[in-house]
Write a structure and sequence with these properties.
Chain B: It is a multi-pass membrane protein. Chain B: GO terms for molecular function: branched-chain amino acid transmembrane transporter activity. The complex is a heterodimer of chains A (294) and B (328). By secondary structure, chain A is of the alpha/beta class. Chain A has 10 helices and 10 strands. In chain A, helix 3 runs parallel beside helix 5 and helix 4 crosses helix 5. The radius of gyration of chain A is 19 Å and the shape is globular. Chain A starts with 26 loop residues before the first strand and ends with a helix. The N terminus and C terminus of chain A are likely disordered. Chain B is mainly alpha-helical. Chain B has a single domain, classed as ABC transporter involved in vitamin B12 uptake, BtuC, CATH 1.10.3470. In chain B, the strands form 2 sheets. Chain B has a two-stranded antiparallel ribbon with strand order 1-4. In chain B, helix 3 runs antiparallel to helix 4 and helix 3 crosses helix 11. Chain B is globular, with a radius of gyration of 20 Å. Classes of the chains: A alpha/beta (294), B mainly alpha (328). Bound molecules: adenosine-5'-diphosphate and magnesium ion. The site of adenosine-5'-diphosphate has 11 residues of chain A, from strand 2 and helix 1.
Amino acid sequence: MSSDANGAAVDRMPGVEPVPGSAKPDPILKASGVRRSFGGLTAVNVERLEVQRGTITALIGPNGAGKSTLFNLLTGFDRVDAGEWSFQGRSLNRLSGHKVARAGMVRTFQLTKALTRLTVMDNMLLAAPDQFGEGMLGAFARPVWQRHERLNRTRAEELLDRFKLLAKKDDIAGSLSGGQRKLLEMARALMVNPSMIMLDEPMAGVNPALVQSLLGHITALRDDGVTVLFVEHDMDVIMGISDWIVVLAQGQVIAEGRPADIRANKQVVDAYLGAQHDESGGEPGAETDTGESR
Amino acid sequence: MDFAYILTAGITTAIGPIAAIYALAAIGLNLHFGYTGLLNFGQVGFMLVGAYGLGISVNTFGLPMWAGFLVAVACAVVLALLLGIPTLRLRADYLSICTIAVAEVARLLYRAEFARDLTGGVYGLQGFADGFYDMNPIPRGSYGFGDITFSARDVWLMLFAWGLVAVACLVMWLLVHSPWGRVIKGIREDEDAVRSLGKNVFVYKMQSLVLGGVFGALAGVVIAINQQTIHPDQFMPQVTFYLWAMLLLGGAGRTLGPVIGSVVLWFLLTVVDELLRGLIQVGALPFLQSSDAGALRHAVVGLVLLLLIVFRPQGLIGDRKEMLVNVK
Ligand SMILES: Nc1ncnc2c1ncn2[C@@H]1O[C@H](COP(=O)(O)OP(=O)(O)O)[C@@H](O)[C@H]1O
Ligand SMILES: [Mg+2]
């Protein structure tokens, strides 16, 4: 894939050491000692992790490495056993999921959560942060909330247009394909106006023809100043688009670095990339495999 | 058998105060289950605290009627908070288990000996509704069309009860067609998705539980006024299951679903009841006594419901397409 078209040649992480837990010059997210175990299994044990503001950071690792669990912990959808983390200088420990989202860190789910019985447009409008009519009493002030609704609708239409879903805005979300639901979930997350977006396998099940434009959206987000942290399996995608890559294995960060650093990291190549490259030989198989994850 | 009489009896019940009472309580259940996805199996508990809230205020404390109303509503709010605070952060099943248990415990508490000074214990309360009938502006006489007639007292009560149903429907319509309604419909499907978009899911579920409970309490108030006496043992768990039957019959997640469900089910109940009685009287069902009719009608209505749910799972006015969407 096009590693040059999106300008990955620009090094957005100048002078950062490619070692696990390395400090970043301008971190938007800082975590330390984050641990979570399920029974005897330690799913996440991250000593130190910083995410640089305004970059695309990929989180990779084999299945069961703890990537989704780490997302859940950082965004308040699961409780840590130990550890602390801060976002834009503000501690997020023990904050529940909705407060994390309001603080500007919005996530999507590996198993897509499109609200299937609402229309595509209602999915979008639901995510808008400024809506007086979402209060129980505000709901009776129709003229007020209808004005907010108009403003939000304009913004929703722009986003839907960008994600090629505008024609479907009045359909119920349940009528969308798995890939379209992924796109909707991403567009919906953007409706919240996040400063950082965390995407859990955004490409899984998306029509390969759409993957290119999805990548375009992600780089465009970064260029708009949004920080992106995403989980992905396709190595070509990751190498092409990421400014920084964090490798997780058995809950621990085993490597970090620019795409070139990761490619040159023998430990990672042996443990993960080697296997992944074998798999990516059977591309169509991998597609149908991820298709069920919606 | 007098079919005209049977039909008249059915219609009289279907538009009478009892149908309005059940419609009101089922509207609350519709907000809980139809729109928010909360499984409340203890709606009768809200009716109980509503009825007694009025009865105790007027009878025991000598408060005026309107104050009794406010007390009834306040009792429902307290009950909803008691139920919701410990359970609404947990998985959905915890709420349903708690509602069924708390409603039954409330009935036992209200009928207990130690509560007798307040609630009248097993003897219940009476004589608190005079204030309501004293306000009746409708001249004495008989009102109706054909064989369907109501007394001035009934008409006054029906105006009040159906008036409350109309207000409840209007409130519900405004709410579910607002951004607030969009949030609770989102919660009905997947509360994590809604939470990830920055909405405080707990607060929305609590608001829904409280408002639906208040509708239940208002139904209890109308029960108390209608009967002019209340008794703990009329608030048995089966009342809630009747409400569920009405909601599913009419169509959950539709503003008018519970109203239509209540009217239709009361019509069916009465007609089946009268038909059975008639058949037994003419000796067509020799193995039955006429006192069995009451029990049997429930079985027949159960069968009707079963057929409806098999062939029309969305209810009479539900949207089949919406219901059959693959949610996951
Ligand atoms: N709720 C849970 N209960 C028990 N084990 C879990 C739970 N969630 C995740 N795990 C386990 O934690 C490990 C990490 O899972 P996950 O974070 O989903 O991995 P990844 O997203 O990297 O594939 C896996 O071994 C998984 O089985
Ligand atoms: Mg995962």
